[in-house]
Design goal:
The complex is a heterodimer of chains A (138) and B (92). By secondary structure, chain A is α/β, with parallel strands linked by helices. Chain A is built from 3 helices and 9 strands, in the order E-H-E-E-E-H-E-H-E-E-E-E. Chain A has a 6-stranded mixed β-sheet with strand order 3-2-5-6-7-8. A two-stranded parallel sheet of chain A has the order 1-9. In chain A, 38% of the residues are buried. Chain B has one domain: Ubiquitin-like (UB roll). In chain B, a hairpin with a 2-residue loop joins strand 5 and strand 6. The chains are: A alpha/beta (138), B alpha+beta (92). Strand 4 of chain A pairs antiparallel with strand 8 of chain B.
Chain lengths: 138, 92
């Protein structure tokens, strides 16, 4: 299960809407071992594409080092699909490389609603998990 | 002195869980060859027939080796090499 604050959900959805029709992507970092997403880090989609995303390699190095220095991990890795459902594609599955991360997908295909779903992707196997949105971590 | 190679979580099964290992070589290609002798299987996760795998980022100190010289990039004692799997995907 992914437990995430409403504020972070709103930020992820706002980023996805702002970059539509291109795919938006980013990370929510949290303390190592906590499984608690805390620090919102929107990333550049180096591909600037409606059907593909890739973190800019230099930005990724900077962000990953910063997480290392702060003893954080990428608790959530998110991206948007802009014309299809919020479910991992074959491409998403083949490149998933953080077995401990919650892979969040949002879809901006509809203007009325923005589905927000979370998955584990380990060794090519996708498992959807419940998303629990909380007002604060208490 | 040696060259420190920082290993991402997903590849630590090849390094007995170690976050960083030491290796030697004059170029990135030699360095990866040296790593392979102690951590068999690692090389195949980093390179294929055409060179560095497209969805693996390798950095020498603060630079992406793609912008340096790829596998031919010279390395020397005291350098740090960082491996990060690219974060990528998409609807296509």
């Amino acid at each position: 299960m992914l437990t995430i604050s409403r504020e972070l959900v709103d930020k992820i959805v706002a980023h996805a809407r702002a970059d539509h029709p291109d795919e938006a992507c980013g990370v929510v970092a949290g303390p190592a071992g906590s499984d608690r997403p805390e620090r919102f880090i929107p990333m550049e989609n180096a591909e600037r594409s409606p059907t593909f995303y890739r973190f800019d390699s230099m930005e990724q190095l900077r962000v990953w080092r910063e997480m290392d220095d702060r003893d954080e991990v990428p608790v959530v890795i998110y991206h948007s699909h802009t014309a299809t459902e919020a479910y991992p594609s074959r491409t998403d599955i083949s490149y998933a490389s953080e077995p401990d991360a919650h892979y969040v997908l949002v879809s901006t295909a509809s203007e009325e609603e923005t589905p927000f779903r979370s998955f584990r992707i380990v060794d090519g196997v996708v498992t959807e998990e419940e998303v629990k949105i909380v007002e604060s971590y208490g | 002195m040696a060259i420190e190679v920082r290993i991402p979580t997903i590849l630590r099964s090849y390094t007995g869980g170690a976050k960083a290992v030491n290796a030697q070589g004059a170029t990135l290609e030699e360095l990866i060859g040296d790593l392979e002798t102690r951590h068999p299987g690692l090389k195949d996760r980093l390179v294929d027939e055409s060179g560095l795998r497209r969805f693996v980022n390798v950095y020498l100190n603060d630079e992406d080796v793609r912008f340096l010289g790829g596998l031919g990039t010279p390395v020397s004692d005291g350098d740090t090499v960082t491996v990060l799997p690219a974060v990528a995907g998409g609807a296509r």
